[in-house]
Prior knowledge:
By secondary structure, this protein is of the alpha/beta class.
Amino acid sequence: xxxxxxxxxxxxxxxxxxxxxxxxxxxxxxxxxxxxxxxxxxxxxxxxxxxxxxxxxxxxxxxxxxxxxxxxxxxxxxxxxxxxxxxxxxxxxxxxxxxxxxxxxxxxxxxxxxxxxxxxxxxxxxxxxxxxxxxxxxxxxxxxxxxxxxxxxxxxxxxxxxxxxxxxxxxxxxxxxxxxxxxxxxxxxxxxxxxxxxxxxxxxxxxxxxxxxxxxxxxxxxxxxxxxxxxxxxxxxxxxxxxxxxxxxxxxxxxxxxxxxxxxxxxxxxxxxxxxxxxxxxxxxxxxxxxxxxxxxxxxxxxxxxxxxxxxxxxxxxxxxxxxxxxxxxxxxxxxxxxxxxxxxxxxxxxxxxxxxxxxxxxxxxxxxxxx
Length: 372
């Protein structure tokens, strides 16, 4: 109940949810293939809205199948195997896609959650899903996709041919306001607490206000603060929450969320963040030079300056850094929005893994030479 992915019987309706519902309704009514991009920061209700609509469509539309896959760290072949509920190995991506369309006997809506975190190039996969009726002359059904991204610029990097083929209908999910967070917390308390009276209205308001002001309305921060605070009170045998429980829980939740965001970054993106953390001068050019020095010592390919700048924008969207323009010198300054020690801890972990990998590869090469 206190997880963001929990699918409640009803959700807080907002302008963007109605916009999304309208797009889905048009797909169901006209059976016209449509491709929707749901984008917004963490904890803005994208996944819970998508899961909610999944259940509604399954109950109401007999001639449609809803499929859902979280693409985080999944290759195109892994994504396809998940959709097919299979484990096809040693088969090309193209053959698995062919098989997918061969076995479909109805219209399909596929939700690709965290599409921006997929591993590898998903261009080919999305291209086939964007125009199956042209590619497969025998395929007579409607295929629509819902792409969910936390990266507000994700679609900017799409191949121009794919972007043209998808013709994405974009629905932007704004951060929750304090009043909306308060309503969500009340619903979850009603389901998840033994007694609703265990927490007063003032404390619910406090959680909602703090998260709206300092976490851009990240619903997960609000739910987990409530959950941790309730656990703390329960552990010491208290039946009601007090303000001290919230004060104890909130910093722990923020640390956990920040650590998770950092650890989930791909290596190349993480080393850009690490360069921000360790650079003595916080200008873009200086950070890029620090980044080049870091990756020189590691078996990672180096980003060009233009790609590096894209990653800087991505890290800002993930609320890990902030860009500040100093007008007097027309220079961009980068500052961290997360704790430096969390980044350093993660760097040492990755450095150790990279070192162990290099040792393993060299020993395998030595073994092959000895055998030869």
